[in-house]
Every structure is written in structure tokens, then in C-alpha cells.
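Researcher: Good morning. I'm working through a list of sequences from a screen, and I'd like to move beyond sequence-only analysis. For each chain I'm collecting a predicted structure so we can compare shapes side by side. This is the next one on the list. No need for commentary yet; just the structure.
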Amino acid sequence: MRTWQTQDVSGGGSTAQAFLIGELEKQDPRLLEPMTSITAPRDIDMIPGGGWVDITSNVFVHYATSGNDEDAIGGSETNNIPIATANISKDVFKVHTFMETLKIPIYDELKLQQIGRSLQQILDDGLRLNFNKLLDRNVYVGISKTGTYGLVNNKLVTAQNVALNEAGSSRLWIDKTPLEIMYDINTAINYTWANSEYDLDGMANHILINPDNYAYITNAPVTAAGSQSILNYLLENNIATKQGRPLSIFPSRWCGDQTSKPGVGSTNRMVAYVKLPKRVNIDLPVPLSRIMQGPNTQGGSYETLYAGQFSQVKLLAPTSMAYYDGI
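Model: Good morning. C-alpha cells for this chain:
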């Protein structure tokens, strides 16, 4: 067989080879972004609107009766009629202002437009991802530099340990029977219910656990027959569901993963709470928006300022939340 060889006599062989390689390359047109997890909208109600503010607030009222007869039962000779009173108070919460600038060199933008891409769009997507990740962290653990807390580490909630298994050797769910895991779930739900004067609106209906335990109860069957997972068994038979309040159980890396565990003694934490706006929420006074844009003639670029506001987690009823560690 004869072998043919070619050579670019002009000395541009490397350029020609690069051109041929480019012609034969099949390029995926998608721009592959970093993998991440944003779950805050699932686990808390976000209330939009309000405009640019420094703080947000909520007003609370507590009722009482003054006088010697707290039952307010009168008769024909009653001369000490109790008086109804109301004590109104206000709690204030911090608001965080997020600001970040996009700088788009016009030369780079024009080059990317020739291949069907926009540097403006790429950086815009990255900035919004950064904002969403910060909002996610704010919801679960707060912003440390501002001294705020989230759903998983709120200082108004006292952490407790789950019970030991029947053998008295472990608190881990992987070492417990389905009935023992159900006992832990019901203990947390009942704790919030009792602390809320047995008001059903104070009974936990939303539970977060670490991903490993969620995977375990999803895969492990209740019985050897394997007809039902532990997760479905828990969702169908807990005391909240039996009271007409469907329970949700979701995985959250903030409850414990390979790098960090928020529970006492670096253990996994179960967070049980009422997911209702009147029990816990955050405010979004200003959504992430383009605030101003202008050219920079010295740098040959366009610069855009983005800003938005979100509040710290507002736990309006601490009695409706419970932490149980060691699962």
C-alpha cells in the first residue's frame, strides 16, 4: 500500500492541522454549569415585596384577664368584674442586601457572539446562582458575619437526643426498627403539638433529615415481604397524618453530610417544624434586579450592578419547631 504524505510548504502546517481538527470536532453546544443543590423554596415560605428596607417586623398580641375571678363567672351580687387586656409587642428581624457587579469587556463579548454565546448571559447566570446559594445558606444556617441563624441552628430551639434503640446501644436509625424510628418521628411531632397548647396549627408537618438517613428509610422495607418502605410507613401512620395534617419528610444536606453535622456532638439532626407563613418565613423585600448599568471607556467594558434583599429566617412560633439529634 502506498502511503501519501502532505506538507504545507508555506510553513503553516500547524494552522492547517488545527483547522482540520476543528472541522472534524463534534462540540456539545450546551454550557455545562457546576452541580449544586438549592432547596430553600421547598422548605420555607418566602414573602415578596416591601421595597428597600433596613429591617422587617412582626406584631404579636397576647391576651389576659385582670381581676380576682379569672373565669369571669358573674352572679347577682358580683362586684369585681374581670377586665380583658391585650399586650401588643413587636419583633424586628435583620435584612441582608446582596450586591454584585458584572463587568463585560466589550471585546470579549463581541468575540463570543461570533460563536453564538453571550458573555453577559454566562456571567448573569453565574451571579444568580451565587445569589441563590447565599439565600439557601441563609435559610438553613443563617449568615455568620451578621449573627443570624436558620432552620437548622436557631438559638430559640433547644436540641434533644432521640431515644436509644431497644438494645440501648445506639440512637442511629440504621440500628433501629421501623417502630423505633416511628417513635422518634412521633416524639418530635408531639413535642411541638404539646408546646403549642395542642393547637393543630402548632403541630409539626414538615421534617428535614440528612440524605443518608433519607436514602435508608426510602430503600429499607418495613417487613421481609418488602411491600412498603419505611418512609411510606412513616408518612402514612404518624400522629400528624392521623390528625388530618399530612406530613412531609425531605432530605437536607444541612442536617448532616460527610463534612459537617449540626447536631450536638457532631451528630445528624432531625428538624421538625410547621411549614406555614404564620409560623416561619423569610421576607424578600427586593428580588435580585439590575439596578444600574453604564460604560467604562477606560476599561472598554460595560458594568452592571445587581442587588436584592432578603431577611433572616423569621421563626414566629419557636414552640412549633423541634431539634432531635443522633439519628
